[in-house]
């Protein structure tokens, strides 16, 4: 019932003031009649067309009545409108991917960064059917605009294991001049890609780049037990000169759990680390490995640091 009310509001809200033309004989001679409410998809103002498509997207399957008009709108002259139309179609009545993928790939190469940033979230909606777009998303990670790169990173995070082939491309962002902004998002996205990227993360952790090391350590921590293949690299990282990497390596070892018991002695060795964040991470990790809170004193001391 709620969807019906929303649909009625949508149709009434977009109803053009065409009462003076309702008896126009020319109108009757034209082709198939378009419902008045959907004429907003053909409005001269692209903002109106965009809003119409966005509203239909919010309605989802309830708006199946608009599927035909939306398919026609895939050829809208405005690229941003086209992307929103693809989103609406996918949420309402998913068409063949071959019909909508060209729109999204064209948007990724558009001169307007706003259009380039709008495409990745819609690509992510396609799930497993987004695979043909992965090479283009990999290229978009090199975009000069931060907003575009962030949109791609977020989309890859939503795709998760589907996008695992782009793990190395994400790690390569460690050399990006704006990595300080991208780092938390890249780490989170890598952590969503599943256990199969553990070797790539272990490799990153073994490099001399502090940025790559941090990415590897953080993302391995997100994998939990899936980070077990990187046990040696994580244990070695407890001795690195970068405090953030030491702390995140300890965190990752703790999340592996009891199967990482061989790292217990190295973890206990950094309970006196000069950095409090490292000491806290090590104390928590020893508990996760053994189930014994014998180093709780480190945590209590940290409260007064």
Question: Would you summarize the structure shown here?
Answer:
The protein is 61% helix and 0% strand.
Question: What distinguishing features does this structure have?
Answer:
mainly alpha, 18 helices, 61% helix, elongated
Number of H- or I-type helical stretches: 18
Radius of gyration, Cα only, in angstroms? 26 Å
Contiguous uncertain segments of 5+ residues: 1-29
Gross geometry: elongated
**Helical content (DSSP H or I, runs of 4+):** 55-70%
Secondary structure class reads: mainly alpha
Proportion of residues in β-strands: under 5%
Q: Total number of β-strand segments?
A: 0
Describe the structure.
The radius of gyration is 26 Å and the shape is elongated. The protein has helices at 2-13, 25-29, 46-59, 67-72, 79-92, 97-108, 113-125, 134-140, 146-159, 167-171, 179-191, 198-205, 210-223, 231-237, 243-256, 264-269, 276-290, 296-302. By secondary structure, it is mostly helical. The model is unreliable at 1-29 (pLDDT under 50). The protein is 61% helix and 0% strand.
Would you spell out the secondary-structure blueprint of this structure?
Blueprint: H1 2-13, H2 25-29, H3 46-59, H4 67-72, H5 79-92, H6 97-108, H7 113-125, H8 134-140, H9 146-159, H10 167-171, H11 179-191, H12 198-205, H13 210-223, H14 231-237, H15 243-256, H16 264-269, H17 276-290, H18 296-302
Helix pairs in contact: 3-5, 5-6, 5-7, 6-7, 7-9, 9-11, 11-13, 12-13, 13-15, 14-15, 15-17, 17-18
């Amino acid at each position: 019932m709620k969807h019906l009310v929303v649909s009625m509001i949508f149709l009434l809200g977009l109803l053009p003031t065409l009462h003076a033309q309702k008896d126009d004989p020319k109108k009757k001679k034209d082709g198939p009649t378009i419902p008045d409410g959907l004429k907003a998809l053909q409005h001269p103002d692209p903002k109106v067309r965009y809003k119409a498509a966005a509203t239909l997207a919010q309605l989802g399957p309830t708006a199946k009545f608009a599927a035909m008009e939306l398919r026609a709108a895939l050829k809208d002259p405005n690229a941003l409108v086209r992307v929103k139309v693809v989103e609406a179609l996918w949420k309402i009545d998913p068409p063949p991917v071959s019909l909508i993928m060209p729109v999204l790939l064209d948007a990724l190469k558009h001169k307007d960064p706003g259009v380039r940033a709008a495409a990745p979230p819609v690509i992510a909606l396609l799930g497993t059917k987004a695979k043909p777009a992965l090479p283009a998303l990999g290229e978009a990670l090199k975009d000069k605009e931060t907003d575009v790169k962030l949109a791609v990173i977020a989309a890859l995070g939503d795709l998760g294991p589907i996008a695992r082939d782009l793990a190395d491309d994400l790690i390569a962002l460690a050399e990006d001049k704006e990595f300080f902004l991208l780092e938390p998002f890249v780490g989170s996205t890598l952590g969503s890609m599943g256990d199969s990227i553990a070797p790539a993360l272990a490799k990153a952790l073994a490099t001399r780049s502090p940025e790559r090391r941090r990415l590897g350590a953080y993302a391995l921590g997100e994998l939990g037990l899936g980070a077990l293949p990187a046990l040696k690299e994580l244990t070695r990282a407890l001795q690195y000169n970068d405090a953030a990497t030491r702390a995140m390596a300890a965190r990752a070892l703790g999340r592996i759990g009891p199967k990482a018991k061989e790292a217990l002695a190295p973890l206990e060795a950094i309970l006196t680390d000069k950095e409090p964040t490292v000491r806290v991470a090590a104390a928590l990790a020893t508990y996760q490995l053994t189930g014994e809170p014998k180093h709780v004193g480190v945590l209590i001391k940290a409260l007064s640091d």
